[in-house]
Amino acid sequence: MSHKSAVVVGHGMVGHRFVEALRARDELNEWSITVLCEEPLPAYDRVGLSSYVGSWDHKELALAGNDYAGDDLVDLRIGSKAVSIDRESREVTTSSGAAVSYDALVMATGSYPFVPPVPGHERPECYVYRTLDDLDGIRATAEAAGPGSVGVVIGGGLLGLEAANALRLLGMTPHVVEYNSRLMPAQVDEGGGAVLERLVADLGLTVHTGVGTRSIEASDNGVRVQLSDDSAIDASLVVFSAGIRPRDQLARDTGLDVGERGGILTDRGCRTSDENVYAVGECAAVEGKCYGLVAPGYTTAEIVADRLLGGEAEFPGADMSTKLKLMGVDVASFGDAMATSPGALEVVLNDASKGTYAKLVVSDDAKTLLGGILVGDASAYATLRPLVGSELPGDPAALISPVGEKPGAGALPDDAEVCSCNGVTKGTICGAIADGACDLAAIKGCTNAGTTCGGCLPTVKQLLASSGVVMSKALCEHFEQSRAELFQIVQATNTRTFSALIAKYGKGSGCDICKPTVASILASTDSDHILHRQQASLQDTNDHFLANIQKNGTYSVVPRMPGGECTPEQLIVIGEVARDFGLYTKVTGGQRIDLFGARVEQLPAIWKRLVNAGMESGQAYGKSLRTVKSCVGSTWCRYGVQDSVGMAVNLENRYRGLRSPHKIKFGVSGCARECAEARGKDVGVIATENGWNLYVGGNGGQSPKHAQLLAGGLDDETLVRYIDRYLMFYVRTADRLQRTAPWMESLDGGLDHLKAVVCEDSLGIGSELEEDMAKHVAGYRDEWAGVLEDPEKLSRFVSFVNAPDQEDPTVSFDDSGARKVPVLMGMPKFAGSTSE
Questions:
Q1: Quick one: 778 exposed, middle or buried, by C-beta within 10 A (0-12, 13-18, 19+)?
Q2: Contact present, 183 and 200 (Cβ < 8 Å)
Q3: Contact 558, 548 (CB under 8 A)
Q4: Distance CA 338, CA 610 (A)
Q5: Cα–Cα distance between 154 and 113 in angstroms, integer?
């Protein structure tokens, strides 16, 4: 049987989608396909490029079925580049000299990174962020430079932040330079950009907005990046992520029409100026417009597959919605985010104190949703984006208000597009569920929803849950187990490394979710130092440097003061350290003294003096016990009925360093007047004439909760025993980053069940929980003392690996006012802390 011949030039995500679509629809096997893949690897997930960092395993990014094994009608030629096209004879010549004939030619050449003509951009320390080979080169340079070395990303768009995160995962200190006045200028407005900049700065990225790059010059330890504001950054490498350009040179060489701004010009059927040649993905300029996202690229691939089989599909336009999550920062942009539609109204909620920004763009009658921007909290994205163009289910302000009623997935119409990458509607997903697809894997398999960026999966989960399907509690894509189940596995098998745990019980190489979670579990079940060997690479920034990072890249130091007690000698040392290192001091709400403005290389010297004075790390940086706040109690106060200070000191010394799913705070009040605010804490102890009342599950913050009475009239021994059980039960069973209040609410039976477990030992594990706590108490060692005793751990605390004594020139302060404040981009701002 003779076949028509299709030749695909390029084997990226869109080229692969075209092959899949044509083979799936070609029931009569009319077409044979030759795929010319220039890269040494077949199609891989370029959207998830950053996940390659850490695993360095090409196979993890490989797209399913990218080798077309067993399909005789697909000829995949790896490492074969198309060098010329003879349109008259319909023939493509490859880099090996082979000539391949075609009946239809599909151009899927993608795009290339734009590198501005900055003097020095051709230096070997300069990279782009596009392929696996690019990342391999970046990795080699980063490893040679060492942990903490500086990497500069030119470009603060979506890909620029992805690249900065990759540098962070490589252990580097990333700087982002963006010519525009805000980050992600194509996706967020000025208000959203300001919040985003604060959030990423708090997480360790140094951001330079509103500046250009003048030159890249050689320096002693790499390169010096000169900026247009006359500042300079000394770095080990530079990554250009300043946008992309359609890769259309081959088309130009063969005489195909191109758009005014580049791209192979096509009609809405993706046909070029040659009726036998089509263009798909980022290289295609559909009616003159190029699209840089994978979703419209997939649409063009489906259209060409349909056209080759006699269909009349046309490009319907593109959903340019984007959702980004880096280092825990959510950003989402959808629809007419910039409010360019005539008569559009903007509804904005900007809460800088909580680090959230939400904007909805609505029609002039406020009834139709046109678009929106979400920064800091994008949980509403999955349900709001499909509503674009539809009538709103309620008041716009209520939809983005923290206390407003949010629309669930059930409120979406059946024709709402849940998965924009693959064009999957709510009705299609619900139909798949009705036909027996009872988990995410099954829905992905039969609808393709969630198989590309994954941003729609929360909505898919809601649809599953509303249909009565029990959802998986998997920690992340690398572990099918929940956090509680992983805790039991670690404890039962005595597994002591992340690599051993994921090799036996997980898959892949891990991510920003499972690595810190497992690190916490390992610390909860053993007394190894958190920077011990492989443990160090799992930690978040604060734990990695045993200090709380601030908005200008400096750190705060919080010595432990059990119960708020501090000797005069220790106070003198704290004052001398603050004076000698030029630190800003503040008494915190948890009765501690916080020292702000320490550079990373100063931390060991600061802590050496504090440790020598008998002080310990306050663990203000960790998901662990922070403080035990107390009033002066019966020893001083005429109203006190118990020694609250003594009890607070005892409890803090007992539970210090206890790693847990989230931070824990205590309060001990010496009478019912409650001066220590114990009922606003995870564990609150209030004195009575008959002993101690124990309250649990309280917290302040965005969703404050009053602690609830667990038991009353307790003597000292019983109080400590119940707290031991309560804390270890929480550490064992809570989800990742779950505070005690929502954990208690999630328990089947709530407070009554907790009372039965802790006070009545209903599960028969009371002695086991107490033994676990006793093991922790016996094994406790001050983390900073452990660093000072270990030269390997000390070597981490430098701003520049190759110049350990050099100060970070990007750190500066303003001392002109009453308070010392960090200076960011020439503007003084007050330093904030999350230590309490």
A1: exposed
A2: yes
A3: yes
A4: 51
A5: 12
Strands 683-688 and 691-696: antiparallel
Buried/exposed code over 135-157 (b: 16+ C-beta within 10 A; e: otherwise): beebbebbeebbbbbbbbbbbbb
pTM score, whole prediction:
0.56
Tokens of 47: 């959207």
Residues constituting the chain: 836
Sign of CA dihedral 605, 608, 610, 612: negative
Please, what is the angle between helix 716-733 and helix 750-759, to 10°? 120
Instruction: Read off the amino acid at residue 416.
Output: A
Residue 444 neighbours by CB under 8 Å, 6+ apart: 450, 451
Contact between 19 and 35 (Cβ < 8 Å): yes
In sign, the C-alpha dihedral spanning 802, 823, 121, 115 is positive
If DSSP codes are grouped into helix, strand and coil, which group holds residue 171? coil
- From the centroid of its chain, how far is CA 341? 32
Find tokens 């690996």 and name the residue. Answer: 801
| Blockwise average pLDDT, block size 10, the chain, 836 residues | 90 96 93 96 87 80 91 96 97 96 97 94 95 93 91 92 88 93 92 90 88 94 94 96 94 95 96 97 95 90 96 87 71 91 93 87 92 88 84 84 66 77 83 80 81 70 72 82 92 89 89 88 85 73 81 85 91 94 89 89 92 90 91 91 94 94 94 90 93 92 81 95 97 91 84 92 94 93 90 78 62 74 51 38
User: CA–CA separation, 60 vs 383, rounded Å?
Assistant: 30
